[in-house]
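stuck on this:

***
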Amino acid sequence: MTHENNLVTVSQFDGNAYKRSQAAELTLNAAILHAEIAKSYEEFLEIFDKFYADDVEVSSEDSPDTIRGKERVRPFLLNFLVPLHVMAEVAGLSISVQQTEVPRDTANETHSGWKIDFAGTSGRRCTLKWNAIRRWKASRVVYEHHYNHEQIGGPLTEDDLNFDWSRAEAGFQLPS
């Protein structure tokens, strides 16, 4: 007969750790939801710098690789944000972000559902949905994993964007 002692640390029962991670999650999500991609992608980078640890690990069920370190994650974030910013600011793409809390009872770990709705100037829509798990150390994300990716609607095309630079509604007029 084998007898194993499973030791549990006091910090695992620390209600303050749970409250701190939940508060940090709420603050981070509010910052993401209030940032406007049409105005600037830099605001999202500032949020990333403020809330993510230097040694953060980011993974996805769609990729076998885990990206380690803020400096290695930043290019992936830019590859996502810059095209969205350009399409929203210049080509009239409408972007709406929604977040839903997924209740959990684990200290220092939070779960949330995300949805981004893209609406082209043609009226066509594409929606991306996924879930995220974040692990927190104090007020910094040290691990983030994305899963349950879903796309509703086809990808938007050039026909869904407004590249007619001569239209007065875009705020541009060609010289006569």
